[in-house]
Amino acid sequence: MDDSKPSSALDLSVAQPYPLWARIRAERPVMRLEASSVGPAPTFLVSRHEDAERVLRDPETFSSAINNEIAGKYMGESMLGMDGDEHRQYRDLVAHAFRASVLDRWDGALVRPTLHALLDGIAPAGRADLMRDVVLKYPVQVICGIIGVPLHDQEQLARWSEEIIQGPLDPPRGVASSRAMRGYLAGIVEARRREPAGDLISELLAAEIDGQRLTEERIYGFLLLLLPAGAETTLRVLGNALVALLTRPAMMAQVVADRSLIPAVVEETLRWETSVTLISRVAARDTEIAGCPIPAGAVINVLTGSAGRDEARYAAADAFRLDRPPQRHLAFGTGPHQCLGLHLARLEMRVGLDAILDRLPNLRLDPDAPAPEIKGFAFRNPDAIHVLFDPS
Q1: Helix, coil or strand: residue 85
Q2: What is the DSSP string of 7-40?
Q3: How much of the chain is in helix, strand and coil states, percent to nearest 5?
Q4: Which residues pair with 302 in a beta bridge?
Q5: Are strands 43-46 and 299-302 parallel, antiparallel or unpaired?
Q6: CA gyration radius for the chain?
Q7: From CA 304, how far away is CA 339, in angstroms rounded?
Q8: Domain positions in the chain
Q9: What is the pLDDT, as a whole number, of residue 66?
Q10: 220: Cβ–Cβ under 8 A, 6 or more apart, which residues?
Q11: Mean pLDDT of the chain
Q12: What is the per-residue pLDDT across 248-278, written as a single tens digit (0 to 9) for each?
């Protein structure tokens, strides 16, 4: 589609963008906006799965360098804004921390104990707000444990993380939180430099491949990416999965009776209600997407949230179904920048759902509380999930 006529900028405060995205997919699947939050460069939205996947799998044409402008001031020198050999070398230096053997260690030593400690605090009460009491704490505490950050500081780190990841919406606060978090981490980094402790910071300081080591800036860049992204994105999508089940009591009963369905719950949630709905790229040269001319320097916002509801790829795309045939989704991106922590996120979701269903029997929504609503444009999650259950 040759769409040279620009449209007005989208309202990023809209709570339910899916009807808008469906209309864009049908009428203007590659849509130019007349205004951009990044700068004067033309900006395009890519809403269909096929086109989104093509953009993310072609880093030579669609560069990640735009993320230096969007996130660099909050996360520093991170892999989000790198391409080619530079990106591969950096990723190789940190990827060892997410290998399968390490995930197995974290599962038994950190992920499950963290979650069960949180559930211990609410199990006798018979009622809770799962977002406040479990979901907002669980992934943050796991990431703190992996990195080597004291657990008693997790609430402050969670606040900084949220303000960093929301930085483009409130730049002064995002920058202030980034500086505060880096200052906090500096003391821990220096302590691990003197005395390694077997945590991720110690591993990053020691990482070396073919004589290459991480620079100081890239160590902090990775930590400032991992803390917000590793915690915020997982907690949001876990909340979305709980809402999906709690608002479908028959499906909830099915999953309670057959826990082998939990991986299907995880994958369907990631497709149906991913927590981060767009990925940005910049055109490195003149090109086209689905027949729409894209000039070099144009910003491309890939709407992965829209791609997950693309009727051309998924039958009954708006429905939440556990019998959906396995198909790749774009919740973790794809191509060379696919999320490094995707296996950890899936592990946390599987363990989280299984333990919550075990420890909180007869789990159901509280009829006297407001029903949970998944909302947001760039980031989607419920604010609260008020539930009742049998005390234990």
Answers
A1: helix
A2: BPPP-TT-S--HHHHHHHHHH-SEEEES--SS-S
A3: 55, 10, 35
A4: 46, 279
A5: parallel
A6: 21
A7: 13
A8: 18-388
A9: 92
A10: 76, 77, 182, 185, 186, 189
A11: 91
A12: 999 999 999 999 999 999 999 999 999 999 9
Asked if residues 45 and 292 have their Cβ atoms less than 8 Å apart, the reply is no
pTM of the shown model? 0.91
As a whole number of angstroms, the distance between CA 240 and CA 375 comes to 10
- Residue 352 corresponds to which amino acid? G
CATH class given for the domain over 18-388: mainly alpha
DSSP sequence for 96-135: GGGSHHHHHHHIIIIIHHHHHHHHHHHTTTSEEEHIIIII
pLDDT tens digits along 113-157: 999 999 999 999 999 999 999 999 999 999 989 888 888 888 898
Give the residue ranges of the chain where pLDDT is below 70.
Answer: 1-14, 35-39
CA 76 to chain centre: 18
Query: In the numeric block, which tokens belong to residue 21?
Result: 């995205």
- Is-contact 38 66, C-beta < 8 A? yes
Could you give the CA distance from residue 92 to residue 112 in angstroms, rounded to a whole number? 28
Neighbours of 319 (CB within 10 A): 11
- With vertex at residue 101, the alpha carbon angle to CA 331 and CA 275, rounded to the nearest 5 degrees, is 15
The angle at the Cα of 239, spanning 72 to 349, to the nearest 5 degrees, equals 85
What the block records as the tokens of 95 is: 């990827």
In this prediction, residue 228 carries a pLDDT of 80
Widest CA span of the chain, in angstroms? 62
**CB 128 within 8 Å of CB 248:** no
